[in-house]
Amino acid sequence: MLRALIFDVDGTLAETEELHRQAFNDTFREFGLPWDWDPELYRHLLEVAGGKERMLAHAAARPPGEQAMVRAMVVEMHAWKTRRYGQLVEAGRLTYRPGVVDLLREARDAGVALAVATTTSLPNVRGLLRHTPADLPGGVVPEGWFAVLAAGDVVRAKKPAPDIYHLALAELGVDAGDAVAFEDSRNGLAAALAAGIPTLVTPSAWVRPFDAAGALAVVESLHGMRLETLRDLRTAPA
Ligand code: XBP
Ligand code: MG
């Protein structure tokens, strides 16, 4: 039985990575680091999930002085980056990816629980929900629609580890087989599958092509996606 939909955030609910990239670069300027992540480099760096982890991974190939500085300051830098990203989101620069809001609404109306399972920090999820326009009576997707917001550093290991999905399932009180996960990236798909959750992939504009073996299906977007289609995909022979 389909009891819950669990959504990744970055790249799945919305194309957020350009704003993350800008927030990182503003942070580097603020902290006096001579780094500038251009879109091509950032596309590669996205293969490391999590902002702190991404900065540390980049530092590892930089001169010892920069490495030491980033290791010492990463928590502070990331906090600054989260605040900056929040300002960019508040400026209303995001839109939901096609079909997302319709699917959220259909699930809500049908009593199918909604959850988020993301690497990004909780304030970023809240900011996105609060400031991203949606074709709904209040003009946004209410945070209260989500039974669970599983986000960021609350688990030991980030995606591709399954921890954040295990947490979301536990908080939902739903078995993996009774949920569907939505992911845009290789790391996200690996995390959801490792938790045993049937997963639909909608690659974001920022991910490099990847093998989505094991996914329920790969679709360009969630435009036109209905609960009935998800139920059919779950029961279709592999
Ligand atoms: C999301 C991410 C990021 C954010 C990091 O991964 O790792 O794209 O840049 O956000 P996923 P923080 O979509 O697989 O969950 O800086 O808040 O960590
Ligand atoms: Mg993602």
From TrEMBL:
GO molecular function ontology, one term from the record: hydrolase activity
Taxonomic classification: Bacteria, Pseudomonadati, Pseudomonadota, Alphaproteobacteria, Rhodospirillales
Entry-linked Pfam families: Hydrolase
Keywords: Hydrolase
InterPro entries named in the record: CbbY-like, HAD-like_sf, HAD-SF_hydro_IA, HAD_sf, PGP-like_dom2
Protein name (record): HAD-IA family hydrolase
